[in-house]
Design goal:
This protein is of the alpha/beta class. It has twelve helices and twelve strands. Helix 2 packs across helix 4.
Length: 347
Amino acid sequence: MSHVLVTGGAGFIGSAFARNFVGWHPNSRVTVVDKLTYAGNLSNLAPIWENPRFRFVQADICDFDSIAPLVAHADAVVNFAAESHVDRSLSDPDVFVRTNVLGTNTLLRAARAAEVARFVHISTDEVYGHVATGAAAEDAPLKPRNPYSASKAGAELLAFSYFTNFGLPVMVTRGSNTIGPYQYPEKATPLFVTNAIDNLPMPIYGRGTAIRDYLYVDDHAAAIDLVLHHGTPGEAYNVGSEDALNTVDLAQHILTRLGKPEALMTFVTDRPGHDLRYAIDSTKLRALGWRRAFDLPATMDATVGWYSRNEAWWRPIKSGAFREYYKQQYGKDLASSGTTTAPAGRA
């Protein structure tokens, strides 16, 4: 692929893919498109900003007139663009449907018109819903249970419909909980790490029994790159670490690495409709040759270490609009427990 268009590339996983792609493919170019909503951050692209094979364009994937010319100049599209936080989808489902479903359809229309060689749509293991036992393979039924995962499932179905009806070479990846550098601190792992650094409570839903796989972001990016180049059109690929932790386990891993007390763990009202277990089978992806480079200890070490060393990245975020979101999301529970209700930034 000589020129890849990466949508949502100023976000967490998209920026990791873009940063790595430039290094992995020295003869290829990458154009990143991002609307720059609250979670899009140009600092995430700083390591490649001056690279002559990199370009950034601010645009909305729902705007066909802006997106179509960019797609027309690319060999492939990798679509990371999405609203991605379950809690926000419960308070404002409309924006999730607009970006995740209508935006994906706009990209698919443009890709079809341009006859792109490959289209990789980035989805999530949450489309399977709660998995009580075992692990979901790619042919398991999709049973999303919140507006976020429902919008992602809808986008997948649209993408596959373009393969079936129009021959667009679409592939879908379904990743497990991904952690690492540059993740917006509304998500549990960076929130826990940055709060613990400041000796603030780590708000844990319910009793902390929800189980997730935790995957390092560079391993996730490598899987997507593999599917881009070697995946079979019309197929989905699970991307999972198969290292299962509940939320208390996750918090303890973080506290141990930071040398902080377990008293920082603070239990708050559970999320409505909380899926208690996700588990996916990545056998199909491994058959393509994927192997992760970071096991669980290495994943936790790299993640906690990065936030510890890069306060200049996350402190401005937690000092801005994030503070109001945090107060609305956790303030009542944390106030009733007698703990601090909002993270404070430092200059």
